[in-house]
Design goal:
It contains 20 helices and 15 strands. By secondary structure, the chain is α/β, with parallel strands linked by helices. The strands form 3 sheets. The protein has a 7-stranded parallel sheet. It has a 6-stranded parallel sheet with strand order 12-11-10-13-14-15, sandwiched between helices. The protein has a two-stranded antiparallel ribbon with strand order 6-7. It starts with 6 loop residues before the first strand and ends with a helix.
Length: 479
């Protein structure tokens, strides 16, 4: 009888920033000869299907998202939350998917088609208990890099920051390389004030941390040439000899095919995509002259701050393309006429990977979400860092101080603290990143990282080898 192809189950946390890299990973795994089942919910399913429809080995299974008091009906993704105050009720609601997930694995077991492993999002920590019932290895995916993860683990376990008096006072981070120093200004606000007795989100994080460290392994969307120094530190926080598998940048696997799929799948956005690229094509004669501006899908920025961003970009005299997700903000009076062809403001969706790969782009004013950092590095584009929420401050620290691949907006404290950064500061940051001298050095450094990233995912590269090693290890375990 012909042997079945090994099956893998992937269960992403319901947020675009967590789902997109796991969709990229599902394609890479399917190209390695594995069948993939992606677990999702009804309203998230179309987004997943449009990305995977050309991959016959990838299938989806829908679990009904629970109806929870306080959450809007049909809100099944963090991008749809009307307020981040609903984040904790949302992640708590996902816990009700534990029983349906167990029933699904039971059906697979009855059909003698259990997965050889499950990859699940960090916030879905309860998947570990279910996997243990069926003796299926569970690998956790955080969506962050090795530097931010190892630093966060150390701060949570050892709390070295509790002994620091000033925001700018450097302190050592236990278990990380001895040269690593952080300050209170580098830390996410919630991590600085981590108190599970007072903060429901901190309580949730401590709970999932306990299941996280018992995972069979950890998948990190990065590559050892960039973050290898932090892998041993991260592994030291896990039990039972769990390994950290650096298999990224995942977006670069089958890069050309994925780019074409994005163009085809985003049919409603084709006009906007072509408009962006046509606008950039007109500037192809001036390579690296345009700064791209985007703050991701999770950040809520006040209209007053958006005004300062707009005016800062205007007075910088730098060509720019800016993605604005606010539905209530409008450019300051007369701005659109004044910038004319020098700036393009896009509402809602934009083809970020294509934009960052365009030769006219010379810098990225970014919130430093890890996906955006990897897309920028892969595109050879330096970063003007303006971290907003979550681990983005640690990512900014890594980009600016460790990689020397950009600069940071002076005085930025993140959207979560409500401080308004003025137009002059923004203009100065843009000028510093895009300037001839420092800008050239930044671009040279990022080009080196971009080449290393591509080599890592190519056949025989470090990430490709680790992905093969991980798969073979799990196949042999299943046998």
């Amino acid at each position: 009888m012909e042997s079945k192809e090994p099956r893998v189950v992937i269960f992403p946390f319901m947020a675009k920033g967590h789902t997109i890299p796991l969709l990229d990973l599902s394609k890479a795994l399917s190209c390695k000869g594995l069948k993939i089942t992606i677990i999702t919910t009804p309203s998230n399913s179309p987004f997943i299907l449009q990305s995977t429809s050309n991959h016959p080995k990838i299938h989806t299974v829908e679990l009904e998202f629970p109806i929870v008091e306080g959450l809007p009906k049909g809100c099944e993704n963090t991008d749809q939350l009307p307020s981040m105050d609903l984040y904790v009720p949302f992640v708590r609601a996902t816990e009700q998917l534990q029983r349906p997930f167990e029933q699904l694995l039971h059906q697979m077991s009855n059909g003698q088609d259990l997965p050889i492993f499950v990859i699940s999002g960090f916030f879905l920590g309860w998947t570990l208990d279910v996997c243990n019932i069926f003796d299926v290895p569970q690998l956790v995916f955080h969506g962050a890099g090795a530097f931010a993860l190892s630093a966060s683990k150390s701060l949570t376990v050892h709390a070295p920051h509790k002994h620091v008096c000033r925001d700018d006072e450097p302190f050592k981070v236990p278990r990380l390389p001895t040269t690593t120093r952080l300050t209170l200004a580098d830390l996410p606000r919630r991590l600085k004030l981590l108190d599970p007795t007072a903060d429901p989100f901190a309580k949730f994080i401590m709970e999932v941390h306990d299941s996280d460290v018992d995972s069979w392994g950890v998948i990190v969307n990065s590559f050892v040439e960039m973050e290898g120094d932090y892998v041993p530190a991260l592994e030291s926080f896990y039990r039972n000899g769990a390994k950290v598998w650096c298999v990224g940048p995942i977006l670069l696997y089958k890069e050309v095919e994925d780019a074409e799929e994005t163009r085809d799948a985003e049919a409603p956005n084709k006009y906007r995509a072509s408009k962006c690229m046509e606008w950039l094509d007109k500037r192809s004669t001036s390579p690296c002259s345009v700064i791209y501006v985007s703050f991701g899908t999770q950040t809520h920025i006040s209209n007053a701050q958006l005004d300062e961003v707009a005016l800062g970009l205007e007075i910088s005299c730098q060509p720019f393309i800016w993605v604005v997700r606010s539905i209530t903000w409008s450019p300051p009076d007369g701005m659109e006429e004044r910038i004319k062809e020098r700036g393009l403001i896009i509402r809602e969706w934009a083809p970020q990977r294509q934009i960052l790969a365009h030769p006219a782009i010379g810098g990225f004013l970014s919130h430093c979400g890890w996906n955006s950092v990897l897309e920028s590095i892969s595109g050879g584009v330096p970063i003007l860092a303006w971290p907003m929420i979550a681990e983005q401050r640690l990512n900014a620290k890594f980009v600016v101080d460790e990689l020397q691949a950009g600069v940071k907006i002076v005085g930025c404290t993140g959207a979560e603290e409500g401080t308004i950064i003025g137009r002059g500061v923004i203009c100065k940051g843009v000028e510093e990143l895009m300037g001839k001298d420092r800008g050239r050095r930044f671009r040279g450094r990022v080009k080196e990282l971009s080449r290393a990233a591509r080599q890592a995912v190519h056949e025989g590269g470090s990430s490709d080898k680790r992905l093969d090693e991980m798969i073979n290890c799990l196949i042999n375990r299943a046998k």
